[in-house]
Amino acid sequence: MALRIIFMGTPDFSVATLKALHAAGHEIVAAYSQPPRPGGRRGLDLQKSPVHQAAEDLGIEVRHPLNFRDQTDREAFIALNADVAVVVAYGLLLPEAILNGTRLGAYNGHASLLPRWRGAAPIQRAIMAGDAETGMMVMKMDKGLDTGPVALTRKVTIGPDMTAGELHDALSLVGAEAMVEAMAKLEAGALQTVAQPDEGVFYAAKIDKAETRVNFSRPAPEVHNHIRGLSPFPGAWTEMEVGGKPERVKLLASHLVQGDGALAAPGTAVDDRLTIACGTGAVGLVRLQKAGGKALSAEDFLRGTPLPKGTVIA
Question: In whole angstroms, what is the distance from residue 59 CA to residue 112 CA?
Answer without folding.
Answer: 31
